[in-house]
Design brief:
The chain is built from four helices and 42 strands. Helices cover 3% and strands 58% of the residues. The N and C termini lie far apart (59 Å). The chain has a single domain, classed as TonB-dependent receptor, beta-barrel domain (Maltoporin, Chain A, Beta Barrel), CATH 2.40.170. The protein has a 22-stranded antiparallel beta barrel. By secondary structure, the protein is mainly beta. β5 and β6 form a beta hairpin. Pfam families: Plug, TonB_dep_Rec_b-barrel. One of its GO terms (cellular component) is cell outer membrane. It is a multi-pass membrane protein.
């Protein structure tokens, strides 16, 4: 039985399960293109362009799909700019968000297989990640892996956004902005080495393809051969992302974005847990569950899409974003019964999906007396089709693991197929009058799903099931802000969300849609004489029938199953960013998040697993602008996570102690030693510099923090 508990955690993304996939499609649009250092660079006319200045975000389209200044938007927005990515060198999405207030990362220790994280207490792994304004699709254990080297920036839009973007997490969305073609020529190549036998080479080139500048291109690529701190768990990948932009005239633009990636890691990335009589975890030991005989996890993923814009006049333009994506994965995993036994069980998961997302909207600018309007009216359509199958086997000798047989009832095979479609129509009006900014949104979504499963239980009983969902829902959003001349902008907002949930809950019944609402109020301050901002906000979020995951034991064995609960989350966030003329860069944040479960009654009043009430982070950097040390850049940061619980029952035996991690960075432009070395840059990055490693538990399973990781790089840019 213990092997079944362990295997349930190994085979799927932490916080996920094998009988449901996220439904729906959400749409955002934002692209950031920046220069080096504190320079602000903008590609004029490019669809979805935003501007950032060093660490500070200036404009964004995430909140409204228009060029709304960040300090005017009536919603909390946090942006990880290109400068921040260059300085901190994150290796995955979780690391990129380490310094974002209200975002919980590291709940499952170090895991190169999936990006899993929470925002204000809500798990957004399946329902909150977007790429270039369109939903990044996933299936039960097939999630797109992120390569940070292919990004320009990351924007976190907090608060319900279903009214504009469709089915999405009640807490907001994360938009990943791909690197774009540029109107200037550039190129770079970089080699890296470091912890865990890391070897990596990458390149990024772009610019105009013709003299007229009507055709632009960009080609970004990377190859890595690396291990991790866990045996039998590599972190290898090959990544290539071609992009091209056509601008035949000032009124028309088409950008084609593509990406292809092959990755290899380990299917088992966890440690042995001990259990009580009720099969609840009571802690982990530093013994890996897996051996190297059956632990290979390969994944191929790709996306091809375009962004089109045409202006009919200064007042009317049409926009269309379309992307097709596909993923295929084969995951082997295994786990021993305990640290005293090499006997255990093994599993094999094969999964694939294809998806299409298309968003088309008309933008119209109007004037009614003293009030100016920016009106959006649009429709988006998304389709997802996936198939999944897995099977189990058991072994007494780890050197003789039998490959699970999908055709054998003794292997308890599971098969599932699902077709999903979502159609949404929406409207938005941004009203401006003097210092007032009012944003109104309304949307209606139609969701349709057919889910088929074929399961053989441990007792040999085979069950076939077909479940259909046909849901419709209206969502809305309203926000009001007042922009003062001296940089202070108070704001308030209210929004609702809607997410259909495929699959079943523990008793086999179809899941209910998740609905949510949030009230938020805050104040933003943009320093008039410095490139610095501060944002403070309070929020009250309520979510009904949210999906959570936990290890469940019954007569047929143990598995990681989904259930639904109601909860509320309320709190306070504070964030400051600055890039100053004297070379100082600063990120500072604090978050207080208080969660309470409302349903089911058995855990009513408990805190949500893994969510600390208190967390803060501080990153400071200094780029020496002149003098003998010109070209030297130093940075360091600390991340603090307060005490939290390892399960929704809040058992003290697996409660997580408060902890803090230190990161650091140093780089040097070698041309300051010798002009002939112009373009060469050395950089050293370290995460968890003090190598602080403790047990961390989540969803009734325990892991360990990722230890110290050091990466050295040499880059040549021209």
């Amino acid at each position: 039985m213990l092997a079944s508990v362990s295997l349930a955690v190994l085979s799927l993304p932490q916080g996920a399960q094998a009988q449901g996939a996220a439904g729906g499609t959400t749409v955002l649009e934002e692209i950031s293109v920046e220069g080096q250092g504190t320079e602000t660079r903008r590609v004029d006319g490019a669809p979805g362009v935003a501007t950032n200045d060093g660490y500070v975000a200036k404009t964004t389209r995430s909140a409204t799909k228009t060029d709304t200044p960040v300090n005017e938007a009536p919603q909390t927005i946090s942006t990880v700019t290109q400068k921040q990515l260059d300085d901190r060198r994150p290796q995955n999405l979780q690391e990129a968000l380490n310094y974002t207030p209200g975002v919980r990362t590291g709940a499952y220790g170090g895991d190169p297989r999936f990006d899993s994280f929470f925002i204000r207490g809500v798990d957004v792994t399946y329902t909150g990640v977007f790429r270039d304004g369109l939903r990044q699709f996933s299936s039960p254990s097939g999630l797109f892996r992120l390569e940070p080297y292919g990004l320009e920036s990351v924007t976190v839009l907090k608060g319900p956004s279903s009214a504009l973007y469709g089915a999405s997490a009640s807490v907001g969305v994360i938009d990943l902005i791909s690197k774009r073609p540029t109107d200037y020529k550039f190129g770079e190549v970089e080699v890296q080495t470091g912890s865990h036998a890391r070897k990596q080479v990458s390149f990024d080139i772009g610019g105009p393809l013709n003299e007229q500048g009507t055709v632009l291109y960009r080609l970004t690529g990377l190859a890595r051969d690396a291990n991790t701190e866990m045996r039998y768990v590599p972190d290898d990948r090959v990544f290539i992302a071609p992009a091209v932009t056509f601008r035949p005239n000032d009124d028309t633009e088409l950008t084609i974005l593509t990406e292809f990636m092959h990755g290899r890691t380990g299917g088992s990335a966890a440690y042995v847990n001990h259990y009580d009589a009720d099969f609840n975890s009571i802690g982990a030991v530093k013994t890996q569950l897996a051996n190297g005989k059956f632990n290979n996890f390969t994944q191929d993923q790709g996306r091809v899409g375009y962004e089109f814009k045409h202006s009919f006049s200064d007042m009317v333009s049409i926009h269309q974003n379309v992307r097709g994506s596909a993923l295929t994965q084969r995951e082997e995993y295994n786990g021993r019964y305990s640290e005293l036994s090499e006997a255990g069980g093994a599993g094999l998961v094969k999964e694939q999906f294809v998806a299409l997302a298309a968003d088309t909207y008309l933008k119209t600018e109007l004037q009614t007396g003293p009030v100016s309007h920016t009106l959006l009216t649009g429709v988006d359509v998304s389709l997802l089709k996936y198939s999944s199958k897995y099977a189990l086997s058991y072994y007494s000798d780890p050197d003789e693991i039998e490959i699970p047989d999908f055709g054998s009832d003794a292997a308890t095979p599971f098969r599932a197929k699902q077709d999903q479609s979502l159609i949404g129509v929406y409207a938005q009006d941004e009203l401006k009058m003097d210092a007032w900014r009012l944003t109104l949104n309304g949307r209606y979504d139609w969701f349709d799903s057919t889910y088929k499963s074929d399961t053989t239980a441990f007792d040999g009983v085979r069950t076939k099931d077909t479940q259909k969902q046909n849901e419709g829902k209206f969502t809305g959003r309203v926000g009001l802000s007042y922009v003062t001349e001296f940089g202070l902008t108070p704001y308030v907002g209210y929004g609702t969300s809607f997410v259909p949930n495929p699959g079943t809950v523990i008793d086999g019944t179809v899941t209910k849609p998740t609905v949510g609402e949030q009230v938020e109020a805050g104040v933003k301050y943009k320093f008039p004489d410095a490139n610095a901002t501060i944002n403070a906000s309070v929020f009250n979020l309520k979510q009904d029938d949210g999906i959570v995951y936990a290890v469940v034991t019954d007569s047929s064995g143990s598995s990681n199953r989904q259930t639904q609960l109601d909860f509320r989350s309320r709190g306070f966030e504070l964030e400051g960013t600055a890039t100053l003329a004297n070379g100082v860069n600063l990120l500072a944040s604090y978050a207080y998040v208080d969660t309470k479960i409302g349903k089911p009654d058995s855990i009513k009043g408990k805190n949500l697993t893994s969510i600390p009430k208190h967390s803060f982070s501080l990153w400071g950097g200094y780029d020496v602008p002149d003098g003998a040390a010109k070209g030297l850049s130093l940075g360091a940061g600390v991340r603090y996570t307060g005490r939290n619980f390892g399960d929704n029952a809040n058992r003290s035996v697996i409660a997580n102690k408060a902890r803090a991690f230190v990161d650091a960075k140093a780089s040097y432009e070698l041309e300051n030693l010798n002009p002939k070395l112009k373009g060469l840059k050395l950089q050293l990055n370290a995460t968890n510099l003090l190598d602080k490693v403790e047990q961390v538990c989540s969803s009734n399973y325990c892991y360990f923090d990722e230890g110290r990781k050091v990466i050295a790089s040499l880059k040549y840019r021209w």
